[in-house]
Design a protein that fits this description.
The chain is 41% helix and 17% strand. With 254 residues, the chain is an alpha/beta fold. Helix 1 (12-23) crosses helix 6, helix 3 (70-84) packs parallel to helix 4 (103-116) and helix 7 (190-201) packs parallel to helix 9 (237-245).
Length: 254
């Protein structure tokens, strides 16, 4: 079996990728800012990154931050991977990074290009939004007594474990370039997702749809972040809610 390094290996996605790869018999190194023995800040790089990559066959790059720094982190990772002779770099991106002009999406697209131009064997998978990210957004929106939602916006949430399974499969294989997107099983209006969340968490809120302005909103409204032709995920939003909130106690506390 191969030696695989997972960046962001303690995060929501990276942790599951790590578990799956280890279950399949691979030697897996977890790289994050605080996880020993490979505690590395990718934005800073340095000799610790070279140590982490020594003898590694494949890197699965899950580390990311909407607060910025992804491009510098990828630049440092790619340079170190070249020095180490890594044969395969797998990167997880987001559906719509080339169609929705959101700052974080632009950064993800820039990293895709760095990966493609790295000189390494590479694979890029784009996925739609994870269920837990949708819940994070809805939790914030549901704090006031009225839930204000962007009008005419849909989403296609996917189960993170399914994305992890696909990434592990890709990491175990040969470099494949840009592979088919992975979308959740249903394209849903944001209103229907909000009402499902409110019901699962026992909240009673009025829901109001508000038209917004800006290029990013127009991109989301046009469905640039969706992949209806790749609705291959199985786990539904309601199944995720049931598993996370059960009868709604956790939601009422929040």
């Amino acid at each position: 079996m191969t030696t695989i390094l997972v960046t962001g290996g303690t995060g929501t996605l990276g942790r599951l990728v790590t578990e799956r790869l280890r279950a399949d018999g691979h030697e897996v190194r977890v790289l994050s800012r605080h996880a020993q023995p490979y505690a590395v800040d990718l934005r800073a790089g340095g000799s610790a990154l070279d140590v982490a990559l020594g003898g590694v066959d494949t890197v699965v790059h899950c580390a990311t931050s909407p607060r910025g720094g992804d491009e510098q982190a990828a630049t440092n990772l790619i340079a170190a991977a070249r020095r180490a002779g890594v044969g395969h770099l797998v990167y997880i991106s987001i559906v719509g990074v080339d169609r929705v002009p959101l700052g974080y999406y632009r950064s993800k697209l820039a990293v895709e290009r760095l990966v493609q131009e790295s000189g390494l064997g590479w694979t890029v998978l784009r996925a739609t939004q994870f269920h837990d990210l949708v819940v994070q957004v809805l939790q914030a929106l549901a704090k006031p007594p009225v839930v204000l939602l962007p009008a005419r916006v849909c989403d296609q949430p996917v189960e993170v474990a399914e994305v992890a399974e696909r990434l592990a499969e890709l990491a175990a294989g040969a470099p494949a370039g840009r592979v088919a997107d992975l979308g959740g099983p249903e394209v849903r209006t944001f209103e229907s997702l909000a009402r499902a969340y409110l019901g699962a968490t026992g909240r009673r809120r009025a829901v109001v749809k508000v038209p917004l302005a800006g290029k990013a909103y127009r991109g989301f409204r046009a469905g640039g972040h969706l992949a209806p032709e790749r609705a291959v995920g199985k786990g539904t939003f309601e199944e995720y809610l049931a598993g996370r909130f059960g009868g709604g106690t956790d939601g009422r506390r929040g």
